[in-house]
């Protein structure tokens, strides 16, 4: 159950952060209206709250592991929303980042390492 919570929270955090950054990008780089930037700011704020709901109490560990989710999620966003065509190296890099995130969040605790 904890693993499911971790995965769901990381997925929600990715949508909020990547979506928020994308909305700001649209406002600034694509001149699609500053109201999109305001929505992006709200989404980025939501990301911070979602990340804080992770069951692990170590900020650095959660954010480090989320980095792997962000890498893969950003590429997925680009594929779905922007029509980005990743290379085999993009897929390999994403897989490595996700494996790293999994190791950080799911590895057994070492006594005294906290």
UniProtKB/TrEMBL annotation:
The keyword Nucleotidyltransferase does not apply. It is a multi-pass membrane protein. It is found in: Cell membrane. The chain crosses the membrane at residues 6-25, 34-53, 59-81, 88-107. The keyword Iron does not apply. Keywords: Cell membrane, Membrane, Transmembrane, Transmembrane helix. It comes from the Bacteria. GO terms for cellular component: plasma membrane. SUPFAM superfamilies: Multidrug resistance efflux transporter EmrE. Belongs to the UPF0060 family. PANTHER family: UPF0060 MEMBRANE PROTEIN YNFA. HAMAP family: UPF0060 (MF_00010). NCBIfam families: PRK02237.1. This is Small multidrug resistance family-3 protein.
